Amino acid sequence: xxxxxxxxxxxxxxxxxxxxxxxxxxxxxxxxxxxxxxxxxxxxxxxxxxxxxxxxxxxxxxxxxxxxxxxxxxxxxxxxxxxxxxxxxxxxxxxxxxxxxxxxxxxxxxxxxxxxxxxxxxxxxxxxxxxxxxxxxxxxxxxxxxxxx
Length: 149
Prior knowledge:
Blueprint: H1 2-7, E1 16-19, E2 62-65, E3 73-75, H2 101-110, E4 114-115, E5 133-135, H3 141-147
Antiparallel strand pairs: 1-2, 3-5, 4-5
């Protein structure tokens, strides 16, 4: 898979994999990460969730992707944030700030965004929650074509 990511991945046929179990438990230790990566007052907000609805990632999730790979444009529930550490290559981020409910509505309309149904964690139970807003719009398609022209 890694070889395919390096040699075959493109915007037209991108390779991407997310795995919450790929990183061995001993590598998840904060003592393994460089100290400059650790956030002061870092807190795992999922530790406050009932055990049965906590995500299985236990603080570490590996993302592997080749050229053109992307996740859908999305906004996570509870403003879930994570620390990303790139081992190789580069990642381009896009942040869009909606300052009012009206501006958020405009973003959703222009991006053809849709609300994810509550499939995250205990979806049918009392703790079910939606996965936020999502859009399949590729904000980097033109950027990528211009760079490779």
